[in-house]
Amino acid sequence: MKNENTFENWNPDGFARDAQYQRTIRAFSADLICGDVLDVGCGSRIYYNLKNANSWTGVDISQRMLDGIDFRLSGEIDERRIMQGDVLDLPFETESHDTVVACFLLHHLAKDNKRLSAERVQLAFDEFFRVLRPGGRLVVAENCRGPLEIPYHLFFSPIYYLALKLRNTEMPYFWKPKHYVSFSRTAGFQDKPLYVHIPIVEGMYQPVTRIVTPPILNSELIQKMTLFEFVKPE
Fold first, then answer.
1. Residues 65-104 as b or e (16 or more Cβ within 10 Å = b)
2. Domain of 10: which CATH number?
3. pLDDT digits (tens, 9 = 90+) for 127-168
4. Domain residues for 82?
5. How far apart are CA 230 and CA 215, in angstroms?
6. Under DSSP, is residue 80 helix (H, G, I), strand (E, B) or coil?
7. CB-neighbour burial class of residue 64 (10 A; exposed 0-12, middle 13-18, buried 19+)
8. Pairing of strands 223-231, 34-40
9. How many helices (H) and strands (E) does the chain have?
């Protein structure tokens, strides 16, 4: 995956604990997340509902994120474990989980340019599909890019290299909903997945820049927070 230092330098306590977007995702996904749950790139905040889960496994490349995990909004579950791992090579058997969750992970798989970034996201979807049982669900929350982010993506490669050189930071690449639908179809998920846009009404902590951006900079013209449900065929 990425240079581990990118994520080890993040501040787990910087992320919100009870934000409206977290409560909204929790409400919309309450009946989607069930059985044996695998959270890939789980980070430090587990805020979706685990009422229907039999087990929960969290995987993240950053031990610092894993050490700071907070289940405050998700509810208790007896069978849970955490482990370091790479989304592009998940250490699990084929068809071993009922639900895979990926919250705000995929844009951080970016590497150098659009083509390489797309290849890595596709590999992630292929891995999600592999570890899901037939009929299983992939629940994805992502920041999808809006029209005002066009310049950023047009000049992504030089921005990426500049950030890497000056701050040892790898910049994210944001995709549109149609791109995620395409990745899912290529992996084998059912056509016509469900998704809903969630407005951002609060300041958002940005782990790359380590600042909280005001709501005006989180408008849907810049990004649309989006929750997807992808289903593996029976």
1. bbebbeeebbeeeeebebeebbbeebebeeeebbbbbbbb
2. 3.40.50.150
3. 999 999 999 999 999 999 999 999 999 999 999 999 999 888
4. 4-231
5. 29
6. strand
7. middle
8. unpaired
9. 7, 9
**Position 3 pLDDT exceeds 70:** no
From residue 44, alpha-carbon distances to 13, 83, 103 in Å are 8, 13, 11
Is the pTM here over 0.85, yes or no?
yes
Interacting residues of 66 by C-beta distance below 8 A, sequence separation 6+ = 42, 44, 58, 60, 82, 83, 84
Q: Which residues contact 218 (CB under 8 A, 6 or more apart)?
A: 200, 203, 204
d(CA 41, CA 59): 6
The number of CA neighbours under 13 Å toward the Cβ of 212 is 13
Domain total of the chain: 1
For residues 169-190, give the mean pLDDT: 96
The CA-atom distances, in angstroms, between 186 and each of 65, 118, 153, 229 are 31, 12, 23, 15
